[in-house]
Sequence to fold (723 residues):
Amino acid sequence: MGRAGDSRVGGQGPVGILLAQPHVQTGGLDLAGVQSVQQGGLVHVGTPGDVDDHHAILHLRKGLRIHQGLVATGGTEDDDVGLGEQLVHSDKVHGLALAALRLVAVDHGQHIHAQGLTLGAHQLADPAIADDAHSLAGELKALGVGFLLPLVLPHGVARDGDVPGTGEQQGQSQLRHRVGGGAGRVSDLDAVFLRIFHCNVVHAHAGADDELQAAARSGIDVFRVFDSLNWIPGMEVAMDEVLKQNKICQATICYTGDILDPKRDKYPLEYYVNLAKELEKRGAHMLAIKDMSGILKPYAAKKLVSTLKQEIGIPIQLHTHDTSGNQVAALLLAAEAGVDVVDCAISSMAGMTSQPSLNAVVAALQGTERDTGMDLERLQLLTDYWEDVRKRYDSFEGGLTCNNADIYRYEIPGGQYTNLRPQVESLGLGSRFMEVKENYRKVNEMLGDIVKVTPSSKMVGDLAIFMTQNNLTPETIVEKGEGLAFPDSAVSYFSGMMGQPAGGFPKDLQRVVLKGKEPITCRPGELLPAVDFEEKKREMHSFDPDPTWRAVLSYCLYPKVVENFVKNRKEYGYITRLGSHVFFHGLAIGETNKVNIADGKTLVIKYLGLGEVDKDGMRTVSFELNGIRRDVQVPDEEAQKNVVQVPMADPEDKSQVGASIPGAVSKISVKVGDTVEKNQTIVTIEAMKMETAITARMSGTVESVLVSEGDTVKGGQLLLTIK
Fold:
């Protein structure tokens, strides 16, 4: 019923389906309890692969990649791709979609009828696939990786206090938080008819003012609010804003540990009960259990849900990942315990680090009082379709080929588990992946067994990689870490910028990481100044002369991503109109591709061949465009990479500042002649979303700077010198 978690081959497109009980009572909808929802349960169909992170499918690429064929590479974002949102009225909906509609008799003998069905698009809608499956295109073209089906509500239900949006906010508005969550598009909640909830996942540190208001005005009705450390003060502002916007607040508890293991006593059953009660008291309309790592064992799920149903009066939704292979059983036992909503994925996109299989859950519940009424044969048609689509993106799979019960040992979130190996390999540590996983476990223990979900999970992963790179152990990290530059995420965590963990911080490690910096104990958003949106808009003029309000908000949260995306789009155009196989793999020699750039406008491209590399590192690409031969010179990135001997820093010489990790120099904070203090940040290096601040190991004056912003550097490479 919202965007599935934190991650994410990932797209967003959940499904809400009533696990119908015999009767649904009529009456008004009490938003404080959403009582009508409690009459049954919902199945939420989520997404493929690692559902919690925007995966590499949507990553911006740099430059032209030369394949054995013509390929134009560029950037896409989920809000700018696909075929858009389509409203389909019930009398015109294809049988595949109608199969999922459950007409439930209400107590006065009438039936609830579907007013409409909105299917959302969040991932690349492949024109090639649409052409191959034309009979489905009209119904499926707006589908993303997940799809949307209606939530059953009683006839005549009305929602109090539904107010329209108030228009765009002015530049004086205050942005209280700087880290945003993602939004999943669904349809407006129509209290009278069968409709779909709009949903949004809001991280505890997501923008709770302008960003949330913008999401609400866009049609989001349900907001899933969570904090990566289960720190309620970090959730309060977002929760209050959801309530202020008169939307449904789904407060979230993140599950970690094992309530069945008496030795794991930091997070016992009482811990979750107390959290749930506090969130209900704070005004939550629904409670989400976020099992981001898929470690909620089946009988633990039954125990947790049954206890919570006794202790709180609001509906409960369960989100989990099937990394272990146990989670279909967990959902079934949770259903037996009375859970109201569970998150699933269509079977061709389910399993492993994704959500449990919708098809399996539907089949298991057939003939029970929580029978969904969904047609398995028609679900299979959708399954077959998405199985074919998934093949187009197999290069972005996380490498997992089977379920792994080792997740109970490592407790790595589903989205992070999928992305971790590519991240490790990009840093040259592919052969040490098992060591990184083991260090992930050790880091968690060092930190006192913390809740691990974005962004705290990223910090644990970054620190595990850091320990592996530098051959550190829990016994040596404090001693050896004195002279090392820790990843920015670790500095942020120990500074209190991610909130306050249960049990506090390990003081010795905090001291080493912060290097004299004082941590905060309040909500980080309280310390942030108001954002001048007009000034941010003016900043964007250097790469976007007329940014939209939405673009400005995005830029406030993700400045680098937005700038790179806009520049990429200007250079390469709207290249998502290419078929997926062309976008990712290029054309074969002699292959022809039709690209529809607008209604009635089609480009016919035939690839003819690729020339040899010239002295300047350029190749000539030959092709026909609408029958006319064209020859274009493009840089061959590999050919232009001349072997250059780079100076390496002497780790014993504190005047030499070296790169602690390989990556790209994203920022140089000093210049020759500047005076620097010990532990001052002087260079920032970025690699696979991990930013690391390089600090001075001595006070002095900058003598030389040997790199520039944007340069790619090796681990240990000399960056600058201090005298």
